[in-house]
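Subject: sequence -> structure tokens, single chain

Hey, anyone have a minute? Need the predicted structure for the following. Not urgent.
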Amino acid sequence: MRIEQLEYIAAVTRLGSLRRAAEELHLSQPALSETVRNLERELGVDLLERKRSGATISAEGRELLPHIAGVIEAVDRLRGAAGDQHRVSRMIRLGTVNTATVPLLIPAVREFRATHPVTQVEVVGAQQAEIHRALLEGSFDLGLVNCLQGDDVPPALESTVLLRGRPVVCLRPDSPLAARPAVSAADLLDGREPLIVMRSGYLMHRFIHRLLAGRTPSFSYSTDGAEMGKLMVAEGLGVTVLPDFSVVGDPLERGGAITHRPLADGEATEVLLMVQRRRSGSVPRAVRDLHELFVRRAETPATSPGAPGAIAP
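Reply:
Had a minute. Here:
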């Protein structure tokens, strides 16, 4: 059982319909309905009365409302007490995909430290699915994730686009492919340079599979995340494909150990880097400040190959 499930039931009761509750909560009606059904299955009680004209709170649900309201109030008091306790010192847990760590995250955390000297920030590298799960469960406060344009975002999360970029080939400056203005899918397949591929579960693994149309390079490595991929490129083990914002400004790129070239074949896929947090519940001030700092840092030309903006669920 999750607190947002109880908050959703309270919203349906207050607004008188599933549709109006979904609009206020910025959820799709099917997503809200499925969340309520999961709670009903767990409790063994039909909380909503569903008719052709819509869904409203059931008689059984009304009997449980005082208990639901009591739990919500208790959680609010707990959050308030925790906020008071940690006004001076608290831990922010940030989940991030590896492609976001260096060019944006490190300067933002450094600046945050200057204004919040006793607030700890725990940075946890994880895959996107793990970040989404931890945000919904409340074990992460913020998440930095990538998606391809057109991908769905979880409706229970507030998502703000920080960077818009394009996939590029990351390679050493002395690579034979660096002499070309652009690198094609055929170049990645021919074996002259081994291809370093992100492991299954990463966004760029999905993109590479689509780019190569399921074809297999003559030789490739598989690695866990962009940072290791860039190190392998710098050591001359091959080339990899990453969003441009993961390469531009990276210490390895600034030091001349890696560079990048655009993809040929008219490849115009857009990759979005987003910061996400849960929609429901109160947001501590320190988390809001770090969220705003990411947005502000992303707007600076030195950080952003593209323009930031909001994205609707």
